Amino acid sequence: MDSISQAALGAAVAGLVAGKRCTPKVLIAGAALGTLPDLDVLLDYGDPVSNMIKHRGFSHSLFVLFPFALLLTLVWKRFFAPSWPFVQLLTLISAALITHPLLDSFTSYGTQLFWPLDVAPVAISSVFIIDPLYTLPLLVPVLAAFIWRSRAAKLCGAGLALSSLYLMWSLVALGQIQDRVEENVAGTHLEGQPVFISPTPFNTVLWRVVVLDDDKYWEGLASLHDEDPTIDWMPMVRGEWPFPSEPELLSQFNAFSRGFVQFKQEGDKLTVTDLRLGMAMYHPFRFVMAKKSDQQVWQLVEPEQLGPGPLLPRQIPALWMRLLGEQSIDALLCNEFDCYRDELVDMMK
């Protein structure tokens, strides 16, 4: 999640655990602890693909944060808070740190909760990386706690309760969309194919669905306000890797993206895109990993991150109308390079 949400979460957790000991200093310390794991963005792993894959890595691992919390508690009690009970201080610091990656795990990006074990990042994908409906019910009580200090712990507890209820709702909404997707692909050639579902920006009402299908993928939108449960799919070119084998970095990228990867030739460049993040032509994680030589032969190159792509003005109102139940997704997804509905729509029948 974004830094504001993480800071508010850390402050709320600290305020609740502190109880009668809650002060503005405690809230500020909790906010700092809540954002601390994201300092790994300052590390450079050598190339943009590695920086993407290894973000939310060791600094978000439960195996790292628990010992770090213990060490920080010993130091803090020794030099800054000798009067605090050790268990209460350990609980405060541990909770403020660990709730950060737990919240991140609800997003689509993925969080390596169990680093260094060789397991997939946890990505529940039930909330967007920025969602005011999660953040505001948490942030407002935390800010109020700076003013009404006698009620600070209760205010923080209320904020945590409201924001947690929203996370629970997001899981319910995700489950409804999952059931709907299964019903839509049942009996088609897409039944049993890998599916990725994520909320569209700033809400848990309109959801984006991606279904892989060999050298193409199908993208659709499903709103909880839809009267017709049928999902309007758009076929998109997925492409393929032009070499007989994958370099290790691409294998890591594939594993991190769970196979939801698009290969696309753009001029003399071959771009590799994580399809889970973004939509239509707008994808924030696009990388050049190969180029054509003067002899028109593909050659591997050092990865280069590209801009996310165009965000067309028509897509903003179209996204809002789709959220309200408008079925057509042409204005959101279609472009002359990627869409070939007429040739493939019969394959869904």
TrEMBL record:
Parts of the chain that traverse the membrane: 58-76, 83-103, 123-148, 155-174
Recorded coiled-coil stretches: none
**InterPro entries listed in its UniProt record:** Transcription_regulator, YdjM-like
* Molecular function GO labels: hydrolase activity
**What keywords are annotated for this sequence in UniProt?**
Hydrolase, Membrane, Transmembrane, Transmembrane helix
Q: What is this protein called?
A: Hydrolase
- The organism named in the record is Enterovibrio norvegicus FF-454
